[in-house]
Amino acid sequence: MTTRQLTEQIKKKQSFLCIGLDVDLNKIPKHLLTEEDPIFAFNKAIIDATHHLCVAYKPNTAFYEAHGLKGWKALEKTMMYLNVKHPEIFTIADAKRGDIGNTSAMYAKAFFEDLSFDSVTVAPYMGKDSVEPFLAFDNKHTIVLALTSNKGAFDFQTKTVEGKELYKQVLEISKSWKNARNLMYVVGATKAEYLTEIRDIVPDAFLLVPGVGAQGGSLKAVCKYGMTKDIGLLINSSRGIIYASNTMNFAEKAAEKAAELQSEMASLLP
Amino acid sequence: MTTRQLTEQIKKKQSFLCIGLDVDLNKIPKHLLTEEDPIFAFNKAIIDATHHLCVAYKPNTAFYEAHGLKGWKALEKTMMYLNVKHPEIFTIADAKRGDIGNTSAMYAKAFFEDLSFDSVTVAPYMGKDSVEPFLAFDNKHTIVLALTSNKGAFDFQTKTVEGKELYKQVLEISKSWKNARNLMYVVGATKAEYLTEIRDIVPDAFLLVPGVGAQGGSLKAVCKYGMTKDIGLLINSSRGIIYASNTMNFAEKAAEKAAELQSEMASLLP
């Protein structure tokens, strides 16, 4: 999917919501545990109930890997379902990968080709040659961790490196990488006030913003400081939506939560 | 496995060699491709031929994920084989993971419990709360990327942060994390001259050292600047050993290459 198509979807649906599919068997409704594939059954119900309210889904790979073969199979089935039933949806593998060149190329193949994700999150610590193999794929997007929403973000990301915070160096330096047009960035909503300066460095790039809701960030502030003429924002919510209820009507309750966010987003769109 | 047991194995085998199981179907001998599980068949042959010459194996998870379900199954089988046949071997999941707390906990479970690895590599960019969930496991080891062996290491890792290079900040700050005794670090052999200063910060920690051989680092220099009284080094070689030959006797040729390194290591041990 191109960023232009993504922007079109956002305008059409009046939503820039991304729903995080972080499926934890301890948190999903008990009645699903007797299904052959409880993780997929949960995802399918959530997707069926919410796909018209969001433009993206983001499975975090950790939650699937934690179940070994079964988890990997559930991820494959979820992606197959999304690609066949909802090709208009932007998909994000929240994998936070990053390795030396030939190894990053293997990860890129796994997520972009085998699983057909539109995008994947990557960690910048190993630098240019760990990220460029991902950038080589046309119409696929590489979402670099810049400023994350956790407390540990202050351990290194906000430290000053040659006169500028590390996360700003990441933004700045990554712009010179080959096929940098395929870059997006993770910027936590808990730090919305940082967005003005971030937009000075990457005025047009799409930002994937976690931390609205559960982690306390404000949607309004993120839009005020981060929105571009092509919107340029994907706001992620995971637990706040998918675990809104763990009763029989969990999907309906998830849709209610998603609709609340979508409606707030519609009011913030130009 | 405890670090004490690891040191005992090193002294017993006169080797601190780690063999990287980065299995690429384009590089393994053609005759294995007709096997039911070519990746496992390759790993088994390499392990059978080299286990007495090394103390550790390090599958890089990218090479398994690139094959989806089949790859994951091959990784499970490889770990099962190692744990049953060679419990004295130290196993490293070269996964370079790192995510917010509850997600890192899922990864830790996947690698330490489900796959029974002794250790896993993690990226430090997201800070303390992304690494501590791994450190919470007793007798399991968390190997933090400090200074990697690729060119991109100079993009951020060697930049000066508050008067000290970023990788030194990572070493220094990580020492204050909970259960820091379970930390090890990745330090590339291509930068052996950095080891003196690294040992000033982490005098006792085990270092996993890639980049000897293929990437041009010198074993002698690494030992000179990095060895501790408990050895404290694991030297990784992947391609140089496992792809020494792609003929019928590939395992024998791999053992010859491993034996060369082991013999050089024996001469460098106290």
Quickly describe the structure.
The structure is a homodimer of 270-residue chains. By secondary structure, chain A is an alpha/beta fold.
Give a written overview of the molecule.
2 copies of one chain form a homodimer. Chain A is an alpha/beta fold and 270 residues long. The first copy, chain A, has a single domain (3-268), classed as TIM Barrel, CATH 3.20.20.70. Helix content of chain A is 43%, strand content 16%. Chain A has helices spanning 3-13, 38-50, 61-65, 68-85, 101-114, 128-135, 166-174, 195-201, 219-226, 239-242, 250-268; strands spanning 17-20, 56-58, 90-97, 119-122, 141-147, 160-161, 164-165, 183-187, 207-209, 233-237. In chain A, helix 2 runs parallel beside helix 4 (68-85). Chain A starts with a helix and ends with a helix. Chains A and B meet through helix 3, helix 4, strand 3, helix 5 and helix 6 of A and helix 3, helix 4, strand 3, helix 5 and helix 6 of B.
